[in-house]
Amino acid sequence: MAFPCDRFLSEAGGEYFRAVGVAAPAHVMFRWLCQLKVAPYSYDLVDNFGRRSPRELTPGVENLARGQRVMTIFEIADFQEDEHLTLTLGDPRALSLFGRVALSYVVLPVSEDSCRLVVKLRVHYPGRPPGSWMRWFLPWGDLLMMRKQLLTLKHLAEDRHRKRA
To answer: Rounded to two decimals, what is the model's pTM?
Structure first.
């Protein structure tokens, strides 16, 4: 399956997939993805300077535009409402450490009340240390952080859907 991030990083030294099933409709899950503009929803002590990621939807965050900052170091490269949010690494300091990065959060409807959130991460690693070491560290670090992020967003979307039902 082609992902939107493929267009933004044609040469990649690594591709990683993460996914989670969600017992909420695609539009509810997508609205929670928009919250990534506000916070990372991973391990807040590490990723959010100790501040707790909001547990309520932030009004207006669903108004997306290309170039907007997401999770501090990323920017929106492309999006399709209720379908995908595609990001690229935009912070120059992060680029020197991680290399070029593009990722797509894709929401795939399964039924009227459920969906699957699939993330594809593409990385073009830097050639010299310390960035070149990311080839070994990034996949494992991303697995831990992204797992927490996806599970947190899943639970928030499911809670929101249950409250509305």
So the answer is: 0.93
pLDDT in tens, 75-122: 999 999 999 999 999 888 787 778 899 999 999 999 999 999 999 999
**Residue 10, domain CATH:** 3.30.530.20
For the chain, the three-class secondary structure string (H helix, E strand, C coil) is: CCCHHHHCCCCCCEEEEEEEEECCCHHHHHHHHHHHHCCCCCCHHHHCCCCCCCCCCCCCCCCCCCCCEECCCEEEEEEECCCEEEEEECCHHHHHHHCEEEEEEEEEEEECCEEEEEEEEEEECCCCCCHHHHHHHHHHHHHHHHHHHHHHHHHHHHHHHHHHC
Which structural domain range is residue 66 located in?
A: 4-164
Largest CA distance in the chain: 53
Cα(117)–Cα(92) distance, integer angstroms: 28
Domain count within the chain: 1
